[in-house]
Amino acid sequence: MVALSAADWGLALAGGGLIGLAAAGLMLAFGRVAGVSGLVRNALAGRVEAIAFVLGLPLGALLVQALLASPPVTAFASPGRLVLAGLLVGIGAGLANGCTSGHAVCGIARLSPRSLVATVLFIAVGAGMVALAGVPAP
C-alpha cells in the first residue's frame, strides 16, 4: 500500500475537477463528449478542437510537473510492453464503443447504464491484468 500525502489528495482532486471542467467545456462549446479515443480519431481527421484537446493532455501534465518541480515520471514497463498495452486498450475501447474517459466521466454523468457496465468492466479487467502481470505498486 502506498501512503498518500494531503498534497497528493489535493492534486488528485484538482486534476479530477479539471477533467470534469474540460469535459463540460467541450460539451458546451462543441456538443462533443470528451472520450479520448473519439477525440484522437477526430484529431487525426484534422478537427481543430480535438487536436487542441489531445495536445493539452500531455502538455498539461508537463506544465504541472514543471510548476511543482517534481522529478520526471519514469516508466515501469518496457517500451514494447507499453505499446502492447496501448494496442489492447485501443481494441477494448473499440469493442466497448468508447473509452474510460467517455464512459466513466461523461457516460456515468449522463446516467447511462451502458457506461456504468463498461466502466465496471474496464476497472475489473485492468485490475486483473495488473495482478496477472505482477506490476508492483509505485
Which features does this protein show?
membrane, cell inner membrane, mainly alpha, transmembrane, 138 residues, transmembrane helix, globular, cell membrane
Structure, described:
The protein contains six helices and no strands. The protein has 138 residues and is an all-alpha fold. Helix 2 (36-44) crosses helix 3 and helix 5 (100-107) packs across helix 6 (113-133).
Give the SSE layout:
Elements: H1 6-30, H2 36-44, H3 48-68, H4 79-95, H5 100-107, H6 113-133
GO cellular component, one term: plasma membrane
Keywords: Cell inner membrane, Cell membrane, Membrane, Transmembrane, Transmembrane helix, Transport
Family: Belongs to the TsuA/YedE (TC 9.B.102) family.
Short description:
This protein is 73% helix and 0% strand. It has 138 residues and is mainly alpha-helical. It has one domain.
